[in-house]
């Protein structure tokens, strides 16, 4: 679908502005969530700025940018003060603590559904097990709690169990499927097209060949750039193996092999709460899910199914059908919670003096959080490319799959 050898070199006419806005929002919320988790792990939920500076790489906050400037941009969520030695500390505001508690309640309430998605990932894996550290990459995307590796997985012994490595050279822990559930071996696309309701008995279902067409939503300029209508129609009619069926007999590089890989990526994106995943994380599962080596090639080629955003240090793949403009059509409770968090983000008109501990003892909460008046608080506008330029993606930089060579311009027959 593109002749570019690098994702960054794609024509600007292929970009979807609305989904770039969604990617920008994710960059901001990911940084805030990361700081929430750091502070939750500290006594009294506070930390000195000097210690916080050790996490600069994880925040992708390059020098000379300062953490204090970042914290001033979210005064309703984070506060700073000096102790009697002049050391600056930061912590969560009362509003932030309420939001963190609310997030935990939402995660616990949706634990059963999250456990189902994790089990279905194991059902798609060739060996019915996955490394725990790889699943951890999807923790926020699936709504898993921070302690899922130590405690959460043991709450669902009927679905999966933790097993030790099988070779002396492997020190990783694995999550292994306990029992196969036919009701879960049905793709989200099958449920939508065939009208299968939640909880409907499908105990006799056996995954096999599928002939369901993928929903397509192309960029508005697609017809001007490409003329492959016949090939797309042929691709949509081609049968493919269900992600839950055994795919070890498929020949790598064949059309059937590639289309099943598209079905696997479609299913994984359907599991995520915001219907987007970091492309690097998808590539980490190529062997387990029997997907091609050059996975980015398929994501770019099938731009009617997926959209790849270049915003941030890591690229993100979106499921086109799940979005109307920049908004999700169906929003998970955690997405509604994140929108509530984003509503608390704003710029300060002026730099405020950091109060000392003695000053704070005589002041109310507004001394730290600041006024909510229009003169003192300006809301962010995520539609602009320059918005929150210092709040870049909080993930580590990883160049894998960044350079894509020889991406085809057409669907294979």
TrEMBL record:
<dbReference type="InterPro" id="IPR045040">
    <property type="entry name" value="PORR_fam"/>
</dbReference>
<feature type="domain" description="PORR">
    <location>
        <begin position="14"/>
        <end position="343"/>
    </location>
</feature>
<dbReference type="Pfam" id="PF11955">
    <property type="entry name" value="PORR"/>
</dbReference>
<keyword id="KW-0378">Hydrolase</keyword>
<dbReference type="InterPro" id="IPR021099">
    <property type="entry name" value="PORR_domain"/>
</dbReference>
<dbReference type="GO" id="GO:0003723">
    <property type="term" value="F:RNA binding"/>
</dbReference>
<protein>
    <submittedName>
        <fullName>Ubiquitin carboxyl-terminal hydrolase family protein</fullName>
    </submittedName>
</protein>
<dbReference type="GO" id="GO:0016787">
    <property type="term" value="F:hydrolase activity"/>
</dbReference>
